[in-house]
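Memo to structure team: turn this sequence into structure tokens by end of day. - J.P.
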Amino acid sequence: MIERAGRGRLAGAAAAALAVALALPAAAQTVKVGVILTYSGAQASLGDQVDKGIDLYVKEHAQDLPPGVTVSLVKRDDTFNADVAKRLAQELVTREHVNILAGVIGTPAANAIAPLATAAKVPFVVMNAAGVTTTRLSPYVARVSFTHWQLSLPLGRWAAQHLGKRAATAVSDFAPGYDGEGGFSKGFTDAGGTIVGAIRMPILTLDFAPFFERVKALHPDVLYVFIPAGQEATAVMKAYADVGLKAAGVKLVGPQDIVTDEELPNMGDAPEGVITTGNYSPAARRPQNLAFLAAWHRAYGDKAVANFMSVAGWDGMAAIYSVIKETGGKFDGDRAMAILRGWTDKDSPRGPIMIDPETRDIVQNVYIRRTERLDGHLANVEFETIEQVKDPWKELNPPK
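Reply from structure team:
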């Protein structure tokens, strides 16, 4: 009888505890996203663009999170230094216990972080760095930006078909520059063109005149340039005009970095007529882009300019929120990567996008654009679309 009474009291206590638990709100679940970007130094404007895209998505989509789930952004400045980025990623994983790593402007930084993502089994969503090998360095890396082969090989093919058969290349002397040079040269020569010179330039230089003088002596029809975006893009346009390449009829082409939208007002008339490939332009009239820009201007003012990096920050958070929503905020690295592989978004400001389930690289439209005057200001006007382009380097170089 005593045993039965004890059991009854226990059962009653358990029922009471259950009733209390059901009456209480669900325990809060915080998903910590470790954001590593360049917030200081010469490339700070690039980090700022990605950062604004991240913050805007979080602000606009807070209501989309599951009940009781919040997102905490833990931000760190890598100063555009790969060693610093690696150390910060280690601290974010071991001390802050972040659930996801995200961001990164430079490819060397992304490549330094990738092995840490593997060791910790923490997903790493790359929002800008565009080196082709990054996603092969860790199964926990997914990229929402682009690769330089993805933009530059189609540009090389288009340039040989429309602009001339002799091209020179001038690129920053680091991995993304080599990728751009390789992709453009492959597309250009496959379409019947000839590369008459290949010039490497110091990264972060603002003095391009000596290199463009060498280009001028080669008498190409076309000059392909890659540099990191930002102030370097304006310096490129100044040298293009000052050295006389534009007056000589040499057609300047490159990826979207050389006419990054926030720098266009600083470039004078030199960019008019420049042909680039890109995955985004704020001049696009897609409804999704108009909605994005409306939110952007509400948050940052009518004069604030969004660029391709802003949209990568926005889309990167869209991918992360998909993981959170599908799992209720409770996931491990393997579960998150299973969701990210094959993730799609038909409503990106840049057009439909997908993360390739095999390579974990972005699949997206590549736009041929011309820089021209639109409503009194320079804009990158999309006039031809190459739909749903995968990274061609990976298709040309399958894993061994």
